[in-house]
Specification:
By secondary structure, this protein is mainly alpha-helical. Helix content is 66%, strand content 0%.
Length: 67
């Protein structure tokens, strides 16, 4: 039996990829993967995810520009 990450673990993993510039895109991907996004609430958690998405997207863009 394989273990599936929780919605919170998956949300942070996706946010770190830099492929999701904001929470709406991140939520859409989680829904597409079959996760319930009901646990993604609260100002602190949403701020952490938003900041991680933004920072990772900027880092991803900076890396692409260096090529």
């Amino acid at each position: 039996m394989t273990s599936r990450p929780t919605v919170l673990e998956r949300a942070f993993a996706l946010a770190r990829t830099g492929n999701y510039p904001g929470l709406s895109e991140l939520r859409a991907q989680l829904k597409a993967e079959g996760y319930s996004i009901l646990q993604l609430e609260g100002p602190s958690l949403l701020r952490q995810l938003r900041e991680l998405c933004t920072a990772s997207s900027k880092a991803n863009g900076a890396d692409a520009g260096a090529l």
